[in-house]
Write a structure and sequence with these properties.
The structure is a single chain. The protein has nine helices and twelve strands. The strands form four sheets. Strands 2-1-3-4-5-10 form a six-stranded parallel β-sheet, sandwiched between helices. It has a two-stranded parallel ribbon with strand order 6-9. Strands 7-12 form a two-stranded parallel sheet. Helix 1 packs across helix 5, helix 4 packs across helix 6 and helix 6 crosses helix 9. The radius of gyration is 19 Å and the shape is globular.
């Protein structure tokens, strides 16, 4: 069995416990003693066959917070294999485990399953991924949906502790570096804490199985506009941020995956469960005030 902190069988098992979402869930469920936290050393989704060796006795819900998110690396021969193993084959294995044992399965998806041509994405929009990463995530969604008790949380532009776009922009501002940032990709930030709150909520209210768009709310913004707000919040001139097109930003660079231009999602189904998402710009201000430049770099076009 997978033991929780209490020593009893875990009611909830979290995979990817050391990632941005995993850490946010740890903070959210800090007082719970019925959760088991499995990192890659205990549940390596790059080797999906290892999941069958886990004793799931007593488990009522699996939260898959693990994913391969290296969007550009997924276009390489090596990265393509890993992306498909982690994002598609492993979720299929989890879906079989959940279906066979009557376990609920929470799985985190991405706006990259769409091509970004619609101004706002609904849960029932047909898949239209542009690159390998999005294709592997779409395949994972299809597999997870075969489990009767499944909740697919489709999210975008995730920001948590560690490597993220916001921390990078704050660091550049402090170091006197004036960045060029993509200005024609539009969406909403999803803070890891908000995603963790949504997972907690959907499980607590026993929301109907299916797919839910989950992000922070508010007016969609471009990456450049978000960067400018970070500069302003940290006491720097937002005019130091120069917006450029995606084409110009990646000009002359090889191995770049295509990215959806529009990532904002319709949140009405999530709201219908009683969950009200926090405005992403208000959350951004609070995050910058708390963490400042305490993170590492991620490419300026972002990735969920």
């Amino acid at each position: 069995m997978v033991a929780a902190a209490s020593g009893a069988p875990a009611r909830i098992v979290v995979l990817g416990a050391n990632g941005q979402l995993g850490r946010a869930l740890r903070a959210r469920w800090a007082e719970r003693d019925d959760v088991a936290w499995l990192g890659r050393d205990q549940a390596d989704l790059e080797r999906p066959e290892s999941l069958g060796a886990i004793d799931w006795t007593g488990c009522e819900a699996i939260v898959n917070a693990a994913a391969y998110t290296a969007v550009d690396a997924a276009e390489t021969p090596e990265g393509r294999i890993v992306a498909w193993q982690v994002n598609a084959v492993a979720p299929a294995a989890l879906a079989r485990i959940a279906a066979d044992r009557g376990i609920g399965l929470v799985h985190v998806s991405s706006d990259y399953v769409f091509d970004g041509t619609r101004s706002e994405h609904r849960e029932d929009e047909p898949f239209s991924p542009l690159g390998v990463y999005g294709q592997s995530k779409a395949a994972g969604d299809i597999a997870v949906a075969t489990a009767e008790r499944h909740w697919i949380l489709r999210t975008s532009w995730v920001v948590g502790e560690g490597k993220n776009f916001v921390a990078t922009m704050a660091s550049l501002a402090e170091r006197g570096i004036d960045p060029t940032v993509v200005g024609d990709q539009v969406g909403r930030l999803t803070f890891a804490a908000e995603l963790a709150r949504a997972i907690d909520h959907l499980l607590a209210v026993a929301a109907p199985a299916g797919t839910y768009n989950v992000s922070n709310a508010g007016e969609p913004r471009s990456w450049a506009e978000i960067a400018q707000r970070v500069f302003e919040r940290t006491g720097h001139d937002p005019a130091r941020v120069t917006p450029v097109t995606t084409e110009a930003y990646f000009a002359g660079k090889e191995g770049i995956a295509p990215r959806p231009e529009r990532s904002a999602m319709d949140l009405s189904r999530l709201r219908a469960t009683g969950f009200e998402p926090e405005d992403h710009e208000a959350a951004l201000d609070a995050y910058v005030d708390r963490f400042g430049s305490g993170g590492a770099a991620q490419d300026a076009a972002g990735a969920a």
